[in-house]
Amino acid sequence: MKWTFQKVDLEAILPLRALYLEEVNHQVRYNAVHERGWSDSYLLTVDDRAVGYGSIHGREIPNRDTVFEFFIIPPFRRHASNVFPQLLAAARPAFIECQSNDPFLSAMLFEFARNISSDVVLFGEHSTSNLAVPGVVVRRRQASDEIFPHGAEPVGEYVAELNREIVASGGFLLHYNRPFADLYMEVREDCRRRGIGSFLLQEVKRECYLAGRVPAARTGIKNHASRACLTKAGLRVSGFMLTGEVSL
After folding, report:
1. DSSP code for 147
2. What's the number of domains the chain is made of?
3. What contacts 84, CB < 8 A, 6 or more positions away?
4. Is 23 among the domain residues?
5. Residue 93 domain-assigned?
6. What is the pLDDT of residues 207-230, one digit of tens each?
7. Which pairing describes strands 113-125 and 136-140: parallel, antiparallel, or unpaired?
8. Collapsed DSSP state (helix, strand, coil) of residue 198
9. Sign of the CA dihedral with 163 first, then 166, 172, and 174 last
10. Model-level pTM?
11. Of 119, 152, 183, at which residue does a domain stop?
12. DSSP per residue over 78-132, as a string?
């Protein structure tokens, strides 16, 4: 069999990528880089039949130095360890980055990379919480609302109000693979550790479902407050972002 990786336009890999998304069935952190033009696509053919693809993006957007997606249809998957080095030779990336809940690419990471590390933890939906914080009301943000300065997250479509003051805001982002959406929120510094963030996320999760999306989230591994907040709101750890240096 003759295996070949050829650089192609994004449209050429979309049918195979649809299979990839169906198989992994989780939020893909870098899903939007394809449509934003921040990735290079390599079509894998065997004897001129398309059987897989690899995608490369940049740790810095202008570069293309990191493998972040790799997929081969199951009938040909046993050849992955022999084929993956051809993608590395064609694209010449310096890094491999993947989600630990992508078992196919993570297997390639551990075989073909060194100095593997992680600084981001991924969360998926788990259960429905029943939280309440006395005096706090969660509602949609209004144009007249006075919003406190945000330092880490954008101002959300939903706010938590206490004593007629906005003490938190949050929402969900839709540029991820369907049906998933990404939750975010920020609590005013003087109101943290009072359960307001988890209560807000609980209510945003409901709105997320009403919009036809499944809630997911991510945060820094060492951000223990954020991790606790997400867990309390009914999410659980679903994986980690892994990065390693290519080693052949």
Report:
1. P
2. 2
3. 70, 108, 111, 112
4. yes
5. yes
6. 999 999 999 999 999 999 999 999
7. unpaired
8. helix
9. positive
10. 0.92
11. 119
12. GGHHHHHHHHHHHH--SEEEEETT-HHHHHHHHHHEEEEEEEEEEEEE-------
